[in-house]
């Protein structure tokens, strides 16, 4: 492994820049921190380009990563702990960071030939933890795929990646323009259902057993008026208690698990 000890090294500067969205977009790469997530990426065959391991923490727990990376032809770097801390988004990195190429795929080609798909569509989600949790929940219920609208927080934001806990390697996640996606869904026979506060039908009365896409709106404003005007059905989550609203990730979980219940 090449040894790097200075935070002024050009490679280190390039790695650290991936904490910013503009550099993730321009390079098509993102950061993946922690032993578990890096191992998940390896097991899933994710397009890892480089792996940084702090020499101060080299131990048996990295053997799997080192062996797999060597077999995959991935560049390995032995970096000083100060370098790892400079590159990492977290305050206490776990000794390993991977540089991963963004997933590529045609969202519209993906829609073809799916039997009774269950999609999650996200409109204006701003909290990275919420977005990551939604991806993780979609993975848990066996959803077909997740479509993240352009007004959402960046899918490859380090906090989103950590919150998803490897689920983004288990199911397709696409960044799309929802105004273009929704008509395409209809062409493929998919019913689009959105949560709104003033809908008359509850989520428990809706039919999610067929081909369906569930739309969850932003934490502050819900589904945008543009998207609400394009859906087939609007449903509400009943709240007989005194809470004013539900967290967006919680609402997505209720919707997804109700869809799963109907499909079991």
From TrEMBL:
GO biological process terms on file: methylation; RNA processing
Transmembrane helix found in the keyword field: no
Keyword vocabulary terms for this entry: Methyltransferase, Transferase
Xref: Gene3D superfamilies: 3.30.1330.30, 3.40.1280.10
Entry GO terms, CC: cytoplasm
GO MF annotations, alphabetized: RNA binding; RNA methyltransferase activity
Domain called RNA 2-O ribose methyltransferase substrate binding: residue spans: 31-106
Recorded family membership: Belongs to the class IV-like SAM-binding methyltransferase superfamily. RNA methyltransferase TrmH family.
UniProt-recorded name of the protein: TrmH family RNA methyltransferase
Organism: Tumebacillus permanentifrigoris
Lineage of origin: Bacteria, Bacillati, Bacillota, Bacilli, Bacillales
């Amino acid at each position: 492994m090449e040894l790097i000890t200075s935070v002024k090294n050009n490679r280190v500067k390039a790695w650290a820049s991936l904490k910013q969205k503009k550099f993730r977009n321009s390079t098509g790469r993102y950061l993946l921190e922690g032993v578990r997530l890096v191992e998940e990426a390896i097991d899933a065959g994710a397009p890892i380009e480089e792996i940084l391991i702090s020499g101060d923490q080299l131990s048996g727990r990295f053997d799997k990563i080192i062996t797999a990376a060597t077999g995959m032809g991935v560049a390995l770097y032995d970096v000083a702990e100060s370098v790892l801390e400079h590159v990492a988004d977290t305050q206490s990195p776990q000794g390993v960071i991977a540089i991963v190429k963004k997933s590529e795929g045609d969202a519209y080609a993906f829609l073809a030939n799916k039997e009774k798909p269950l999609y999650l569509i996200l409109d204006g989600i701003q909290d990275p933890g919420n977005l990551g949790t939604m991806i993780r929940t979609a993975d848990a219920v066996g959803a077909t795929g997740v479509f993240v609208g352009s007004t959402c927080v960046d899918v490859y934001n380090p906090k989103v990646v950590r919150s998803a806990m490897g689920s983004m390697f288990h199911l397709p996640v696409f960044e799309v323009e929802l105004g273009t996606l929704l008509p395409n869904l209809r062409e493929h026979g998919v019913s689009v259902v959105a949560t709104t506060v003033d809908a008359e039908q509850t989520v428990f009365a809706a039919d999610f057993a067929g081909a369906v896409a569930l739309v969850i709106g932003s934490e502050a404003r819900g589904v945008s008026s543009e998207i609400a005007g394009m859906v087939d059905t609007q449903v509400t989550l009943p709240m007989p208690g005194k809470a004013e609203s539900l967290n967006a990730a919680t609402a997505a979980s209720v919707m997804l698990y109700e869809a799963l219940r109907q499909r079991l």
